[in-house]
Amino acid sequence: MPRPTELTVHQHSRVLEIAFDDGARFRIPFELMRVYSPSAEVMGHGPGQETLQTGKREVVVAGIEPVGHYAVRPTFSDGHASGLFTWDYLYKLGSQQDQLWRDYEARLIAAGRGRDDAMPGKAAGSCHSH
């Protein structure tokens, strides 16, 4: 498994830049990270239980903390902070981002939602865990 050698949060361009010891380097948009956050709030508790995330284009990573030697936990500007991003997962987000964007766009179309629509139901900034 490739290990990260460098990790930089670029607030202005809203990307997480990460380099791995196999020579790979990715610039992962915060929006992509937020939309694909590996948290129960986003992913649900099994296939088909995902919550489609919208209105995340302007989201920024307000803070990021290491978790052991295998992951980071970003705090997003919308209050979301329950996603644990392992090095494997960040590598996947970086290396597959074109496909992930296409999947996201397809899910938006299927749901009749727009990328910039407000999230339905909950008040902004509230975050529940079960």
Task: Summarize the structure in words.
The chain is an alpha+beta fold. It has a domain at 30-111: NE0471 N-terminal domain-like, CATH 3.30.2020.30. The chain has four helices and six strands; from the N terminus they run βββααβββαα. The protein has helices at 30-35, 40-43, 87-95, 97-111; strands spanning 4-10, 15-20, 25-29, 61-67, 71-76, 85-86. A three-stranded antiparallel sheet has the order 1-2-3. Strands 4-5-6 form a three-stranded antiparallel sheet.
Give the uncertain stretches in residue-range form.
Answer: 123-130
> For the report, how would you describe the main beta sheet?
3 strands, antiparallel
Task: Kindly state the percentage of residues in helix.
Answer: 25-40%
CATH topology of one domain: NE0471 N-terminal domain-like
> Quaternary arrangement of the chains shown?
single chain
- SSE string: EEEHHEEEHH
**Second-tier CATH architecture of one domain:** 2-Layer Sandwich
- Molecular shape: globular
Strand arrangement in the largest pleated sheet: 1-2-3
Q: Give the helix/strand class.
A: alpha+beta
* CATH class descriptor of one domain: Alpha Beta
Question: For the CA atoms, what is the radius of gyration?
Answer: 14 Å
Q: For the residues shown, what is the average pLDDT?
A: 91
Distance between the termini: 31 Å
Q: Please provide the count of β strands.
A: 6
